[in-house]
Amino acid sequence: MVKRDAIRGGYLYLTVQDVEYRVYYEESGPENGIPIILGHTAGSDGRQYRHMLCDAAVTEDFRCLVYDLPYHGKSLPPHGVQWWAREYSMTKSFMIDFPNAFAAALGLERPVYMGSSMGGHLAIDLALHCPEKYRATIAVEGALRSAVEYVDVGMAGIRREFDNPNVNRASTGAAMMLNISPYSPEENVREITWEYSCGGPGIFAGDLNYYYYEHNVSEDEARSIDTSKCMLYLLTGEYDPNTSPAETQRVADLVPGCKFQAMKELGHFPVTEDYTKFRTYLLPILDEIRQKSAAN
Amino acid sequence: MAVIDFEAFTKASKDDPEFRRAMRYYDGTITLRVGSDEMHRMDFTNGESVEQVAGPGRIEIEGTEEHWINLLQSLPKPFYQCLQSTAVKHGMKMTDTNETFAYLPALNRMVQIMRDLRKAG
After folding, report:
1. How does DSSP assign B31-81, residue by residue?
2. Hey, are the CB atoms on A178 and B82 less than 8 Å from each other?
3. pLDDT higher than threshold 80 for residue A176
4. Closest alpha carbon within chain B to A151
5. In this predicted structure, what is the pLDDT of residue B51?
6. Summary mean pLDDT of chain A
7. Nearest neighbour of A239 by CB, restricted to B81, B88, B102
8. A49 φ, ψ (degrees, to nearest 5)
9. For an engineered disulfide with A138, which of A22, A114, A294, B41 has Cβ 3.0 to 4.6 Å away?
10. What distance in Å separates the CA atoms of residue A130 and residue A150, rounded to the nearest whole number?
11. Which of A166, A241, A244 sits opposite B102 (nearest CB)?
12. Is B79 part of the contact surface with chain A (CB cutoff 8 Å)?
């Protein structure tokens, strides 16, 4: 008997902002399950969600779909664009347009969106800008803005560290140690550093343009998020220096009706760092979404 | 009493395959400062530990005794989990030379070896 993961992979073609992308995505769970789109962190890819996609407690009722953003993982850079002649930079509008196009292409009816790190920031942006498209969003390590100590480095400093011809990709993987809880099992820690060592040149640094700069939610915008249209859940690890629980608490204090839990002994990559711990925070949220979906 | 048992670290690092591999090709120094009284320096030529080197590489890490003691705990408090988070969140100082970025895998391993030594007593 061959041992297999219950994950199916495939490619679809999406046109976003007038460019066609061949997009790799994976999914698990029943086709008629509640769709939940999963967004990965900056400079990494959908492999981060492999444990969740194999969690029967999730996939019994939820259809989990995780994409690799263009230039990440198995989603190659597009044809028809001279991407090699320009500096890659992720924008807020692309981050928002991409899951919207993905959901529309697959005919997903008001999916849940959950993302981590820059994907977590996006959960807040989606709840703010397109609540009619999502029944709920879950921000894992989300905030109004990333921690000021990192924002102050500036894109030039970020590119010098993470897009520097003198420095190989192993360093980007090693730099992720700053985000990881010391309680995380070493195998998982090494998997995160491996994934970060695999990224395309300049992609992690370019993603940080959205993560540190274009994602910048004002207090008034946060107050305007309507959780009766799109419920916003917030989960943040106590060892995340980029988005600490204190930073997520600011969102929780401003968004009426949202729900926030700080996660003990977890860091910036809880989904991968220690999924067994993370799911104890996730499953009650999914249960609430399941009950609300059944009632509607 | 020194915060870093540098002699034990030097011995352990020479037998550590991950640290040795992560240091490959390095020509330069790693200098560690603990407060104003404790300083350690390692010299490398082509990635091998040597008595004295004239190579141009320069990696320097400087922290208070409190920084180092918190950093070297087996299960450190939030944001003491590595050198970089200790620098950004707690004020430890690190050079931002290309070598510092390039040899971050080795520096992380160095911290882990020091933690293991400290735990072993």
Report:
1. EEEETTTEEEEEEEETTEEES-----EEEEEEE-HHHHHHHTSSSPPTT-S
2. yes
3. yes
4. B88
5. 87
6. 97
7. B81
8. -100, 15
9. A114
10. 28
11. A166
12. yes
Residue whose pair of structure tokens reads 């010098």 in the numeric block: A160
pTM above 0.90? yes
Inter-chain CB proximity B101 and A167 less than 8 Å:
yes
Q: What's residue B53's pLDDT?
A: 77
pLDDT range class, residue A138, cuts 50, 70, 90: very high
| Residue A170 in contact with partner chain B when CB distance is under 8 A | yes
Q: Does B82 touch chain A (CB under 8 A)?
A: yes
Beta bridge partners of A67: A25
The arithmetic mean of pLDDT across residues A43-64, rounded, is: 98
- pLDDT tens column, A193-241: 999 999 999 999 999 999 999 999 999 999 999 999 999 999 999 999 9
Q: Which two tokens stand for residue B54?
A: 């004239």
Would you call B101 an interface residue with chain A, using a CB distance cutoff of 8 Å?
Answer: yes
Q: Is residue A1 included in any domain, yes or no?
A: no
Structural domain boundaries enclosing A172:
8-295
Residue written as token pair 């915060």: B3
Task: Check CB contact of A166 with chain B, cutoff 8 Å.
Answer: yes
Give the residue on B whose Cα is nearest the Cα of A153: B88
The mean pLDDT value for B50-59 works out to 85
Cβ of residue B112 closer than 8 Å to a chain A Cβ:
no
**Can you tell me the mean pLDDT for A266-285?**
98
Q: How confident is the model at residue A104 (pLDDT cuts 50, 70, 90)?
A: very high
Which residues of chain A are within 8 Å of residue B84 when distances are taken between CB atoms?
A: 175, 177-178
Query: Does the distance separating the beta carbons of B101 and A171 come in below 8 Å?
Result: yes
The CATH number covering residue A35 comes to: 3.40.50.1820
Cβ distance A288 to A295 under 8 Å? Answer: no
Place of tokens 């807020």: A92
C-beta atoms of A177 and B78 within 8 A? no
Asked if residue A273 belongs to a domain, the reply is yes
- Number of domains within chain A: 1
Number of domains in chain B: 1
How many angstroms separate the CA atoms of B38 and B31, rounded? Answer: 11
Could you list the residue range(s) of the whole structural domain that residue B41 is in?
A: 6-120
